[in-house]
Automatic annotation (TrEMBL):
Primary location: cytoplasm
EC number: 6.1.1.4
Motif ('KMSKS' region): 586-590
Gene: leuS
Organism for this UniProt entry: Arthrobacter zhaoxinii
Protein name according to UniProt: Leucine--tRNA ligase
Length: 821
């Protein structure tokens, strides 16, 4: 008798699947379409345990929908531009493409072994010219629409990677990639105008509610940071040889205007230098130096003692004409709001801390019933009524806010304003291994986009090794022949833009490319996009909650506005899988607790590893590899497989004559699995499958016997359901059962509802020894459930008539006797 050998079945089936093309969607409209996508991998070495988990999850969904009869698009590609390839090239005197494509091949082989059910003919790499041609094409469209522009401003700079970073890539003041403290540098950089879409990015989250994890939506909402308030214009008096000028502040509390006792501009904003009198200039310059080293987080920390310098100027409060000293401080950020604030120490703790440090006045304008902030040192921020505010006195806060705005509008000194925390997306990078920005700079014509028929602008050849080392300017600049070109407009001498795009640009539209990856007339075929988009189920880590997912939403909206795409959201539902830990901690080199995926696969087999990933916990939760048992999974798989060896009936037997109890369990399991899969409770489905396999084994050995049709029915259902988690074993089981390949297309078993009805009996309920009710209950009802059902009976309650209960005697399933007080 043959024994279960994962190695043998891993060899046997891939070719069969390939030949049958079971993972290639028909794409002919004959069946309803569904698009399942895992966040595409970055080719950093071979696959790791995290990939194994995430891709196992995505594959369950893809395989489930296939079994349900959908035409499923499940593609794979690589996010293959980026810094690690470049760093490896510098170190090994090589070209980034060497490292990149070698790693891609390694990962592709591992993915094939791992048997993810993807259509390999749709494979894409973002570093291929056929792909980045369209990234450039999209950039050009954004440029034409005014959504890509260049500006000079202070930007986040990573001193280690020697490149700028988007705000989204600065985490707690450090470079998201290498952890180095980020500094600011004034540079001329390219931006995408994502702020123009802030409202829609926020509003359309309504459509995603219930389909995306709550916390991802909350993080995006917070990142976009919509604040309703007002702009208020203050006159700054002429002083120290400086002329009068107007400065606007953003405030969410226009009702507190009368409580403003000083005025603050961000010390690092150009405005501070502009306002400061000669006398105070040196102090400001010194102070600015000390501010440079601080991250935004540190600047806003409530733990730090407030710092700042007086500018020598005064602002005039438009409400009451009071003169407010103008300070420059670091707790006001240059790139939020207008970079200037009216300080209301009584009702804003940051302002109060500053006032205390520099001995500035505190004036309460809202009576909240709490202690005077000037005394307590605690700003009052709650509800209350206005005081010390002239005509606004007596109004509750909620009414005072619009009233104050109306006054400002009448005066012409301010108006309602909605401010966003979201900044434009800084997309240019001073690195080599990325998509070149398709712009030519001409002395006569300025910025000229490279004409579409000259795309792609491919990376210059010949640069490798040391030539790629970061120098603060792009390595592309050293490729003289590549840089110097004729202007497409006037044919005069011109230079190519030498920056490359942030790799998040590449990944902001790859899911659209997959619908027609070989299309040559555009980034994707609009017809195909109409058929497939949006992605039905997207799977990936929560670390992308803001960056990638926000950018992808933005790109989708712009492409929608261009008329190329019907969908205006890219991902209908989102599943964030948990992490794979070892010993309760994330796997890392420094902890030395890494688990090698290849070794696990060699030891336990692909199916056992996949099944373990799924069975260990709900998909959203972390899996601790120290707590799981891949050998237990392997044993279960062998057990399931052996059913196929023992069953003696032929395919196509009439199940209806089979053992009713086993049939009921089979149909109940399918019905439950269906519901559980629709709700991403994959681990519970595995548990149910284990029960069904055990019951089937029992039926063979000590019950109905190996020839009973119910046993075949159960085993076939096991094979189909198991194909979602353990594709090799399921296919081999299907084969042992005498069925033709492939189980992938077997179709989800139909549930016979009549088999779901459990056997029932009549239970008698007595009160004080007299029969008061009869209940139809399941034959296998528990004592507890029966007791509960009896006490809930209307008839019983009527006879108890409010009297307490002394004892309840339960003899399940037939009798309940209630003795009242
Ligand atoms: C006066 C005031 C009184 C304020 C009060 C608050 C409470 P959000 O909700 O985050 O939008 N602010 C404005 N620009 C700032 C900047 N660049 N750096 C630091 N703080 C800034 O916060 C808006 C509030 O934060 C604004 O409203 C302003 O202080 C401050 F009782 O104005 B408020
Ligand atoms: Zn020109």
């Amino acid at each position: 008798e043959a024994v279960y050998s994962f190695a043998a079945i891993e060899q046997k089936w891939p070719k069969v699947w390939d030949d049958l093309g079971v993972f290639t969607p028909a794409d002919d409209g004959s069946r309803e379409r569904r698009y399942v996508l895992d966040m595409f991998p970055y080719p950093s070495g071979d696959l790791h345990m995290g990939h194994a988990e995430a891709f196992a999850m995505g594959d369950v969904v893809a395989r489930y929908w296939r079994q349900r009869g959908y035409d499923v698009l499940h593609p794979i590609g690589w996010d293959s531009f980026g810094l690690p390839a470049e760093n490896a090239a510098i170190k090994n005197n090589a070209h980034p493409s060497d490292w990149t494509y070698r790693n891609i091949e390694t990962q592709a082989e591992s993915f094939k072994r791992y048997a993810i059910s993807v259509d390999w003919s749709r494979r894409i790499h973002t570093s291929d010219p056929e792909y980045y041609r369209w990234t450039q094409w999209l950039f050009t469209r954004f440029y034409e629409r005014g959504l890509a522009y260049r500006k000079n401003s202070p930007v986040n700079w990573c001193p280690k990677d020697q490149t700028v970073l988007a705000n989204e890539q600065v985490v707690n003041g450090a470079c998201e990639r290498c952890g180095t403290q980020v500094t600011k540098k004034s540079l001329n950089q390219w931006y995408f105008k994502i702020t123009e879409y802030a409202d829609r990015l926020l509003d359309d989250m309504e459509q995603l509610k219930g389909h995306w994890p709550e916390r991802v939506l909350a993080m995006q909402k917070n990142w976009i940071g919509r604040s309703e308030g007002a702009h208020v214009r203050f006159n700054i008096e002429a002083d120290g040889g400086k002329p009068a000028e107007q400065v606007t502040v953003f405030t969410t509390r226009p009702d507190t205007l009368a409580g403003a006792t000083f005025f603050v501009v961000a010390a690092d904003a150009p405005l501070a230098l502009d306002l400061v009198t000669d006398e105070n200039r040196n102090a400001l310059l010194d102070y600015r130096e000390s501010v440079k080293a601080l991250s935004d987080i540190e600047r806003q920390s409530t733990e730090r003692v407030k710092t700042g310098v007086f500018t020598g100027r005064y602002a005039v409060n438009p409400l009451n004409g009071e003169k407010l000293p103008v300070w420059a401080a670091d707790y006001v950020l240059a790139d939020y709001g207008t970079g200037a604030i009216m300080a209301v120490p009584a009702h804003d703790q940051r302002d109060l801390d500053f006032a205390k440090t520099f001995d500035l006045p505190v004036k309460a304008v809202l009576d909240t019933g709490e202690e005077d902030p000037a005394v307590s040192g605690v700003a009052t921020t709650g509800e209350g009524t206005l005081i010390n505010s002239g005509t606004l006195d007596g109004l509750p806060k909620a009414e005072a806010i619009p009233a104050a705005v109306r006054m400002l509008e009448e005066q012409g000194t301010g108006e309602k304003f909605v401010n966003f925390r979201l900044r434009d997306w800084l997309l240019s990078r001073q690195r080599f291994w990325g998509t070149p920005i398709p712009i030519i700079h001409c002395e006569n014509c300025g910025e000229v986009p490279v004409p579409d028929d000259q795309l792609p602008v491919t990376l210059p050849t010949g640069l490798r090794g040391e030539a790629l080392a970061p120098k603060g300017t792009s390595p592309l600049a050293s490729a003289e022949e590549w840089v110097n070109v004729a202007c497409p407009k006037c044919d005069g001498p011109a230079r190519r833009d030498t920056d490359t795009m942030d790799t998040f640009v590449d990944s902001s539209w790859y899911f659209m490319r997959f619908v027609s990856p070989h299309f040559t007339d555009g980034p994707f075929d609009p017809e195909a996009a109409k058929n497939w988009m949006p992605v039905g189920q997207y799977v990936g880590g929560v670390e992308h909650a803001i960056l990638h997912l926000l950018y992808a939403r933005f790109f989708t909206k712009v492409v929608h506005d261009m008329g190329l795409l019907e969908a205006s959201e890219p991902f209908g539902s989102l599943l964030n899988q948990g992490q794979v830990l070892n010993g309760g901690k994330a796997m890392s080199k420094s902890l030395g607790n890494g688990v090698d995926l290849g070794q696990q696969l060699d030891k336990y087999g692909v199916d056992a590893v996949r099944l373990t990933m799924i069975f260990a916990s709900p998909p959203e939760d972390d899996v601790d590899w120290a707590d799981v048992s891949p050998s237990g999974s392997a044993k279960f798989l062998a057990r399931a497989w052996r059913l196929g060896q023992d069953i003696t009936s032929e395919p196509g037997v009439d199940y209806s004559t089979g053992d009713r109890k086993l049939r009921a369990l089979t149909h109940r399991t399918v019905a439950d699995a269906t519901e559980l899969l629709e709700n991403n409770k994959f681990n519970v489905v595995v548990a149910k499958l284990m029960e069904l396999v055990n019951a089937t084994r029992k039926a063979i050995d000590s019950g109905a016997g190996a020839a009973d049709p119910a046993v075949r029915e159960a085993a076939e259902a096991v094979a189909v359901m198991l194909s979602l988690f353990a594709p090799y074993t399921a296919e081999d089981l299907w084969n042992l059962l005498g069925r033709d390949a492939s189980v992938v297309n077997a179709g989800w078993p139909a549930v016979d509802k009549t088999l779901l009805v459990q056997d029932t009996v009549t239970a008698v309920v007595q009160v004080q020894g007299k029969v008061r009710d009869r209940l139809e209950v399941a034959a296998d009802i528990s004592e507890e459930d029966l007791r509960e059902a009896a006490l809930a009976s209307d008839a019983v309650q009527r006879f108890l008539d409010g009297r307490g209960i002394r004892t309840v005697i339960v003899r399940a399933p037939k009798l309940v006797n209630i003795v009242s007080a």
